[in-house]
Amino acid sequence: MKINLKVLAVCIAIPLIVGALSGIITSGAMDSFNSLEQPPLSPPSWLFPVVWTVLFILMGTASYFALMSTGTESDITSAMVFYVIQLVFNFLWSILFFNFGFLWFAFIWLVVLWILILITAVKFYALYPPAGYLMIPYILWVSFAGYLNFAIAYLN
């Protein structure tokens, strides 16, 4: 597969911009979040933006590979629709959890997000296996985020 750097840059920029906007919107809620009782295995606050930046780059790269694959237009469109939906769910989870403090609702939202990520990864894999593999760290991190979300909701 020949790499189109402009398309790749746009594909990587999209989730990075979504993540940055989410970070800006939720930044004011961090004091409230830091005052909540945290469960065991809670990582330090500085780790979250680092991990999310890497995940957004992997996610954007995966979307590029799926978009540029030799799959049918219908299969590519279906994969991209799920990709966009999960990206919207990802964006809104932060606002639900941090800004509104809807801890239990955010957990249910996160479960739906996890399912959407899995569907996206499977669709990406069907189009171009490395694209599916690039989604695995994201699935793992959101699984861990699910543990944190559930535990924080339970403890608070």
Helix-strand blueprint:
Elements: H1 5-26, H2 30-34, H3 47-67, H4 73-99, H5 103-127, H6 129-133, H7 136-155
Question: Could you give a short description of this structure?
Answer:
The chain is mostly helical. The protein is 80% helix and 0% strand.
What does this structure look like?
This protein is an all-alpha fold and 156 residues long. It has one domain (5-21, 46-155). It contains seven helices and no strands. The longest helix is centred in the middle third of the chain and has 27 residues, at 73-99.
Work out the number of β strands.
0
Q: How much of the sequence is in beta strands?
A: under 5%
Largest sheet: none
Helix content: over 70%
The stretches of 5 or more residues where confidence is low (pLDDT under 50) are none
**Number of folding domains?**
1
Order of helices and strands: HHHHHHH
Whole-number mean pLDDT:
96
Task: Based on Cα principal axes, name the global outline.
Answer: elongated
- Span from first to last CA? 49 Å
Structural class, from secondary structure content?
A: mainly alpha
Count of discrete alpha- or pi-helical segments spanning 4 or more residues: 7
In angstroms, what is the radius of gyration? Answer: 16 Å
